[in-house]
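Troubleshooting log. The previous structure file for this entry was overwritten by mistake, so regenerating from the original sequence record. Sequence copied from the archived sheet and checked twice against the printout by T.R.
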Amino acid sequence: MGGQKFQYDESGGTFFYFLLSFLALTLIPATLYYWPRKQKEDPEKVKRQCKCEQCSLKREHMKTAAPWKGPKNLFIKFVIILGWIILILIAYKVSQFDYEMSNFDPYEILKVPVGASQAEIKKAYRKQSVILHPDKETGNEKEFMRLSKAYQALTDDEARKNWEKYGNPDGPGAMSFGIALPSWIVEKKNSIWVLGLYGLVFMVALPIVVGTWWYRSIRFSGDKVLLDTTQMYYFFFHKTPHMMWKRVIMILAASFEFDKKYNSEIVTRPSDDEEVPQLTKSLPNLGEKNKERPLCFPYSIKARALIHAHLMRVPLNPSTLEIDRRYIINKCPYLIQEQVNSVNQLILLAYARRIPKLPSIETIENCMRICPMVVQGIWEVRNIFLQLPHITMDNLRYFQNKKRPIKTLQQFAQLKPTDRRNILKSLSDEEYEDVMKVLGSMPCVDFQVKCEVVDDENSTEVTAGAIVTVTVTLVRKDLKTLFKTEPVVGEKGVENGIEEDNADEESKVDPKKPAWQKNRKKYNKKAPKTKSKVAPAATSSVKVKPDESPAPTVTKVEKANENVENSDDSDSEVDTNDRSSDDEVKNSNVEDDDQEWEKFQQKVHKRDGVLEGKSKMSHSVVHCPYFPSDKQEYWWTYICDRKSRTLLTQPYHITSLVDKEEYHLRFTAPNWKGVYYFTVCLRSDSYLGFDQQKDIKLDVKEAPTEITDHPQWEFENSEEEDQVADDGHESEFTTDDDLPDDDDH
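Regenerated output below.
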């Protein structure tokens, strides 16, 4: 290979092949991925949309939220179309190369018929050479070379044989390898420009791009939160282990995402000097006089005022503060999730004895309480019915009926249609339809909990220090499943509906009640207590009535025959019993194997799901007209001890609950035996009034003592030798060292 020279493309033909393949490999996937597409709206989704004023304004803001998307999409389309035009031109040029190489016909080039004489060929050659000669004004060097090669192919005998055999007057072409780059790249006069371009791309542009990306990425955590913000959360939550939710809002507003020094997207206006102080004066309990840093910084006070105005639904200037409110509120769910993670990490550090103060369970729950408040734009202390469209403070008094007050959305959904309409009689039919759409799309979650000790002989028994696995099963349905339908009564009493008797009978059947309804036992005091009648046991003595004839006497031989028959029957019964018991054991073993295999498959499936990663798509988009963008329905689940106010498991953020999901929460059982009560909690990050909790009872037994010494594992050499000598074979517990070597035989 020494001394080999690279051959560059002199004519530029192979370079066009390189460009064609490179453009095709990059342009096709880029077109499929980056070509802007207009999303088609689902007609069913459009029907389910709420038509209230706030939802309509939100949809308009979302369409105009990114004004740069229009020019960006237009630029992307222009670049892709330009790339396809270049690709088509290069493909056409390459096809011309192939046509010239594969369609060499000397008769066609000389424009003479096949079988023409030598005189006719020479005459045609002279006529065209006068026109195509390079020295003439109309000359063409390339065409003149083709003309000369065609004349040679028809006049020279050897060239004619090569053309007839190989299709080329020069004979068979030799295969050559080279670099598909034009030769001007390696020319000496162009070397400075080539090296300059190389240095500009690889030594200037590439390091700047990589450094900029690296500098931006190291400033953020995995959840796109600034690391400085996370550090600030750690400081304040460690400083105040028991924190009220109003102070949590203060810390949330102090996030550095809202500071222009850390975030270039933040806009400061001259009008803020007038509008922000006016807004702070109109909001109570804002705490603007707090001197803690960065809680006292102007950006923090502005963000805090906008969050309070959002929760009180105060109208703002649409051209200034309203834009800032939408930006700040849109980032709050991510920041609240980071607060929950920060408090959880501090709890883990407190358990590891690395920090002295343990944050209370109320602190992490107060962080969770803020998220649905921000999403719905309402204080938790206000009525939860304000989450429904068209509901104002004037409508709330109809829910507070003295006979039967409605306190939850679930109770409102379970009312009869006439009762619901009477409560909202001040609304029009269209407004009432919007209320029922939103109410029917809200979650109705069946929350089930199962406690066990996995990979243990007795999974139901919990011993001290054991790993307890709590399986949380969530079945999500719409709240419209609780709606009651009223029958339409006609002439015959019931038409186009459900009969009242059948409805009463179905209502008597105790269906599976939702988790928020308490199970109330009804006792019938008038009903007498029924005693279960038990059949008396058969006695050995039998009394004979006087009317009955006495039993005939039995001889000894007959008794012996009967005993033999009975013994045979009993033996057959024993055999059948043994066979049936063996079959049952086999069947039980098969069932156990099947159950173990199913458990193994479930573990593999769950492991694959974990490897695939968390999905961020839940059941449906949350109805939140005051939240600036679409919000998915997420949940938190965790286990806590209310008595000691501690957290037992890390809060699991559920982001993929569509219909049914299972989650496993694991914690270590207490080290002392006794009865313990823990609470499994489920909290929504999107709606108020849908939190659930279930108490679990843990009867912790004393852990079995470790087996250190076992009598059958302790042997002395004398006992082993005696056993081998007496039995004539080796002991069952003999080790490999005690076996004789092959050389001893």
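The chain has 21 helices and eleven strands. Archived copy saved in two places this time.
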